[in-house]
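Technical annex B. To support the medicinal chemistry partners, we prepared a structural model of the target in complex with uridine-5'-diphosphate-xylopyranose, based solely on the information shown next.
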Amino acid sequence: MNPRINHRLILFPHPFQGHMNSTLQLGRILYARGFSITIVHTNFNAPDPTSHPHFAFRSIADGIDQSEASTSDIRGLLALLNVRCAVPFEECLQEMVSSQGGDAAPIACLISDSMFSFTCGVAERLKVRALVLRTGGAAFLYVATIFPVLKEKGYVPVLGSRSEEAVKEFPPLLVKDIPAVDPQKPEVMFRILDNLIEVIKNSFGVIINTFEELEHTDLASLREVLSVPFFPIGPSHKCCVTSSSSSLLVEDRSCISWLDEQPPKSVIYVSFGSLAAMSEAEILEIALGLADSKQPFLWVVRPESVRDPEWPQKSPSCFLEALEGRGKMVKWAPQKEVLAHPAVGAFWTHSGWNSTLESISEGVPMLCMPCFADQGVNARYVSDVWRIGVHLNGGLERENIARAIKRLLVEREGEEIRERALVLKEEASVCVGQGGSSYRALDALVSHILSFK
Ligand code: UDX
């Protein structure tokens, strides 16, 4: 532990699991560097303060009620959070700025999630330096900077007939990898991305959960286009000296003892993050595909991701039989431990950024089934740039699922993919170690913050 620095950092996480994880991991990293940490958080999806006893926590009244908190309309919820949080956040920060000089350490800077559009303006008014935490990857952020070009070239809103077309301005992207834009309300997505770029341009720098060796080309492009300092300190979950859970759901640890009974590299781990939801038909195809694959599987089925509460009791007998020993279902898993377990041979994922980075960090090949937002870009990089996974091509059907799982777990192609995944795993490990690129970026970040005073 470094000597204490008499400076306080105010962290403001976006209230979704993937974003919360990265922010609290960053808090632990900067606490270990000697800073005092205060987490300002919404009442909606509030973090558990007992998991972080060294941090101070302050909640703000976001006024989001249960009916509005539905993640079925994520873009609507993003917009609502920006409307509802601006004033209570400013009041909270104002109070902390005014109470400096007492027993609280002076505020060195604010670090807020890049999805909040109002934070840099508030910080400027209160004369607090603001950094932005980007919890996604550099490639997607660069796509966000060229969105006006994609719009001008007619790639968005995407027309179904063009979805398999290459995006010539940004190889190897296909049109279907670009974040979907609702043709009825295209301005919603355009505004989200415009806000993201503006908040970064108005900040004193961007902390990003990736590492130089993984995304050096896109990081170089971002530094050129956005002209603010970037600090790629990831994989942030590998930098934390202490492991504390920031999980909003209770983890079912029985899956670890189940994994202990499985042969090495035999299990397909299946999880689609904290927001994606599936129809009953899709859930059924996944179940049948897993049953047909004949491979052991560990499947995370988040309660709110399935509309039918009777599921899986109503599943076909072949699936229920597969569950007798060969398959295991849990509502929420200790994912980082699962990916590090020797029995796990592949990860069927929606390609959320945290899941992607966690899989890279453990050298686990991926079967990518992107659903929305940045997942299409993340998945394309996994399959075509880093070549450490494959897309679930041909659609969500039992035959395609079984075939894709065999490609990764049984066939020669899967071995070659695993070899490449293990090289990236090593790079992810080296970069966070002393002298590594992320370690040096963290040193630069600390110096940058201390230069504010
Ligand atoms: C959201 C967006 O969907 C994603 O596209 C974006 O990149 C980040 O914000 P989410 O869908 O939750 O994220 O996916 P992801 O980024 O993968 O984060 C999920 C987190 O939940 C991971 O840290 C993962 O370790 C954790 N998790 C998931 C568990 O702890 N247990 C589980 O069973 C499943």
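Notes passed to the chemistry partners:
The chain has two domains: 8-246+431-450, 254-429.
The pocket of uridine-5'-diphosphate-xylopyranose is lined by residues 16-19, 21, 135-136, 247, 271, 273-275, 300, 332-333, 335-336, 352-355, 358, 373-375 (CB under 6 Å).
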